[in-house]
């Protein structure tokens, strides 16, 4: 059985069928990319999976648990975390404090009366480990709002990882990045596959082809095809609706 399975997800907005009985599976340890042209239903599908939108039909199952009726924060508790296109860091707090708040939320309140949270060593160790894991160790004491865009995106990922997810939804993590930041993000995401399965929604096709074990192509609210990079690049309908006629060679 797959770690995660979206089963027959349907969402209608009036007469518009935004997702049409979508089936999508993600395996443990897999980076699975979701691509498609604008208006394909990607954002709606991710909102259904994360619980921001209720589905009209279908189920969302993670590690054998049906999450379909649960709220977004309840889904996080069951191992489903999400990073949004727009970062959601506490801009006036340090990177360290952002991470401490995130690990506290995952662990539950364990602060002793009248003690500073920096003295809660187990939380501090976890926060520092997350900083190392995401390349933020050298900026722990900087205010999050002063970080360049690429580092803020890394912090957003670190905050999601604090929840110890079984499945991490990354919604366009390379958005707004230059080539150097994008490659650094690709390297970081590649290193996370040992921690969590990842569902990656991304328009940067170079990044997708570097990272994804499998790719699902969403068109008009339906999964057109799923396969590895070679399969997707060679699929004639994918070329016509999304990739265009010039398809890069597999590498």
Structural commentary:
The chain has 251 residues and is an alpha/beta fold. It has one domain (4-243): Rossmann fold (3-Layer(aba) Sandwich). It has 9 helices and 10 strands. The strands form 2 sheets. It has a 6-stranded mixed beta sheet with strand order 6-7-8-3-9-10, sandwiched between helices. Helix 6 (179-191) links the parallel strand 7 and strand 8 (197-201). The longest helix has 13 residues, at 95-107. Residues 245-251 have low confidence and may be disordered.
Question: What's the helix and strand layout?
Answer:
Blueprint: E1 4-13, E2 16-26, E3 31-35, H1 42-50, E4 57-62, E5 65-66, H2 72-77, E6 80-83, H3 95-107, H4 121-133, H5 149-161, E7 167-171, H6 179-191, E8 197-201, H7 205-211, E9 214-219, E10 222-227, H8 229-234, H9 236-243
Parallel strand pairs: 3-8, 3-9, 6-7, 7-8
Antiparallel strand pairs: 1-2, 1-4, 4-5, 9-10
Radius of gyration: 19 Å
The main pleated sheet reads as:
6 strands, mixed
Number of strands: 10
Give the termini separation.
30 Å
Q: Tell me the β content.
A: 15-25%
Roughly what percent helix?
A: 25-40%
CATH topology: Rossmann fold
In brief, what are we looking at here?
With 251 residues, the chain is of the alpha/beta class. Helix content is 35%, strand content 24%. The radius of gyration is 19 Å and the shape is globular.
Keywords:
6-stranded mixed β-sheet; alpha/beta; globular; 4-stranded antiparallel β-sheet; 10 strands; disordered C terminus; 251 residues; 9 helices; Rossmann fold
């Amino acid at each position: 059985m797959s770690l995660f399975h979206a089963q027959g997800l349907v969402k209608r907005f009036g007469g518009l069928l935004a997702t049409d009985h979508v089936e999508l599976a993600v395996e443990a340890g897999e980076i699975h990319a979701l691509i498609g042209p604008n208006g394909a239903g990607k954002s709606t599908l991710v909102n259904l999976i994360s619980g921001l939108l209720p589905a009209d039909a279908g189920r969302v199952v993670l590690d054998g648990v049906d999450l379909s009726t649960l709220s977004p924060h309840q889904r996080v508790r069951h191992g489903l975390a999400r990073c949004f296109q727009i970062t959601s860091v506490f801009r006036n707090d340090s990177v360290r404090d952002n991470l401490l708040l995130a690990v506290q939320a995952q662990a539950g309140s364990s602060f002793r009366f009248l003690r500073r949270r920096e003295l809660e060593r187990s939380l501090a160790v976890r926060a520092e480990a997350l900083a190392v894991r995401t390349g933020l160790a050298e900026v722990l004491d900087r205010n999050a709002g002063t970080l360049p865009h690429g580092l803020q995106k890394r912090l957003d990922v670190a905050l999601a990882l604090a929840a110890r997810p079984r499945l991490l939804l990354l919604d366009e993590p390379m958005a707004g990045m230059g080539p150097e930041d994008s490659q650094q993000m690709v390297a970081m995401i590649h290193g996370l596959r040992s921690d969590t399965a990842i569902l990656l929604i991304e328009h940067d096709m170079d990044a997708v082809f570097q990272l994804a074990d499998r790719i699902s192509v969403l068109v008009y609210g339906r999964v057109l095809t799923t396969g590895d990079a070679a399969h997707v690049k060679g699929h004639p309908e994918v070329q016509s609706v999304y990739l265009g006629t010039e398809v890069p060679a597999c590498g």
